[in-house]
Amino acid sequence: MASTTQIPAPPARRTALSNKQGHKHGPRAKGTKGPGRFRPNYLGGLGGWLWLAVIIVPIYYVVVTSLKNQAGFFTSNPMLPPSEPTLDNYKLVLDNDFAMYFFNSLMVTVGSVVPALLVSFMAAYAIVRGKGRFLTLTNNTFLLGLAIPLHATIIPIYWMITKAHLYDTLLALILPSIAFAIPISVLILSNFMRDVPNELFESMRLDGCSDWAMMWRLALPMTRPAVVTVGIYNALGVWNGFLFPLILTQSPSTRVLPLSLWTFQGEFSVNIPAVLASVVLATLPLLVIYVVARRQLLSGLTAGFSK
Amino acid sequence: MSISTGSSRRVLEKGPSGWLAAPALVFFLLFAIIPLFGVLFLSFTKWDGLGEIKLDGLSSWTTVLTDPVTGNALWVTAKIMFFSFIVQAPISLLLGVFTSASQKYRAALAVLYFVPLLLSSAAVAIAYKALLDPNFGLGPGLGLPFLAQDWLGNSDLVLFVVVFVIAWQFVPFHTLIYQGGVRQIPASLYEAAQIDGAGRVQQFFAITLPQLKYTIITSSTLMVVGSLAYFDLVFVLTGGGPGYSTRLLPLHMYLTGFKANDMGAASALGVILVVIGLALALILQRLGGKNRNASQLEGA
């Protein structure tokens, strides 16, 4: 597949492919392109709408309920929007240090994803372009990391973090998050880097470019879609992470959003609309990113994991 | 890879220094590989999480291996792994094929399908707790008695509720993997099949499924090994209950270590978790026939 295209940019490859299909079927076949779609697939369509209902009903319920007051919640039809929508629940959540938890989550996510990307990119470059037993061994170590449920190691990690006097700090969350992001990052990045034509490296080499310079001036631009993919994937994982915050932090000042949802639910368990408002607020930043950068996000993830 | 002239080939032989891989390796060794040995070491000790760590021989292992809760946790894990796979794999595969086609409405549906990817497990669990509440949830509110069950309090039902919620959260991710896989199948294969008069179902079984072999292995490996990491969702949704009915192995490890303060026994459970994960990953890779990375390289 990849050998037919020069640039390893997944979105470009995708459009090229679908255009080609479109041309082959001609304009009359509009709406029926793609694998084997020569007449409307009613059964498939039905299944598709059914799954949409499965996905949307819970999300709709959460949003609608979060806009109800408590009395309205107990008396109204759960699937109907409130007769008097209120934002009081959101105010309650915001008044309960939401901004601080948000900021903590942001710090941990950026603090983990950026270094993880940097070290994984350098490692992938060395693994693909370099030679020697050390690099093979390094690559195999990372591959092993993919097969192991790394969360099984939380107890020694807890011990190390307490010994390093990092317990209940944001750095305690950042350090293991970087390490856990490395195997999948190196795998995806190196898969993409293998598609960069060798000739490009050779010609830069003949121009007197060092390996270090080639990494930034050739490998990085050529694998940018993969870097974005890996960044998004890791950011989702860290932003939504629950286990590390649960075992490595304790006080409200180091609390991150997923953990705050849990504690908020414990404190306000009777006020379900407020609890659900906290769920909406915690998801909102990602939803905004999704709406803005949907294409990049989805095509990146598709390409990253299907290679 | 490619054939190059003698002179440039000689220059290329050097390649970048292995030191570039060192920072990643150091991080990974420090926070993944050393803890991996640490968990084995700690399984032979007695530690309450705060005081001194004392060597204690095999007593943690005896505790863990004779405790019926461990066997139960393994059984619950196996059941959730099995049912999650049975539910998620076909749905993701079909949705992946469905969304990979280029009809406009399918693309629009796909945008909504992937929204669950954005939610944290804690958020999903809290939403479903409210939704499934036997008194104030969706069922009683709509006056539908069959939906008004005590979903999370009934030990016969709860396992399937957990499987459903897991599928709700993770099917989108696997759909995405399959979507990418289907899009890489050459269109010429389908054209040839259509000329031969193959129907949609025939094409699915004769082309789509065999062509997706490596995608199926990737997705299944992530699914099965990933089901050993369903911790946060189940922790918030049921806390492992009612009784022990959803106490998965990772959850059992957490509760043993951080609630019952028996880090030795929890470490032994961690070792069991690692061994199972490794064994499953190896078996699944074997099922794929040959080394996936190597074969992908040949094709590229």
Average pLDDT confidence of chain A is 81
Q: Largest interface here, residues on each chain?
A: A-B, 128 and 126 residues
The number of helical elements of chain B comes to: 15
Radius of gyration of chain A: 24 Å
Strand order of the largest sheet of chain B: 1-2
Distance between the termini of chain A: 10 Å
Poorly predicted regions of chain A are 1-34
How do the SSEs of chain B run, as a string of H and E?
HHEEHHHHHHHHHHHHH
Sequence of secondary-structure elements of chain A: HHHHHHHHHHHHHH
Structural class of the secondary structure composition of chain B? mainly alpha
How helical, in percent, are the residues of chain B?
A: 55-70%
Molecular structure report:
The complex is a heterodimer of chains A (307) and B (300). Chain A is 73% helix and 0% strand. Chain A has 307 residues and is mainly α. The radius of gyration of chain A is 24 Å and the shape is globular. Chain A starts with 9 loop residues before the first helix and ends with a helix. Residues 1-34 of chain A have low confidence and may be disordered. A two-stranded antiparallel sheet of chain B has the order 1-2. By secondary structure, chain B is an all-alpha fold. Chain B starts with 5 loop residues before the first helix and ends with a helix. The relative contact order of chain B is 0.13. Chain B is globular. Chain B is built from 15 helices and two strands. Chain B has helices spanning 6-12, 22-42, 59-66, 68-100, 104-113, 121-131, 138-142, 158-183, 187-195, 200-211, 213-226, 232-237, 249-259, 263-287, 292-299; strands at 45-46, 54-55. The interface between A and B is large, with 128 and 126 residues.
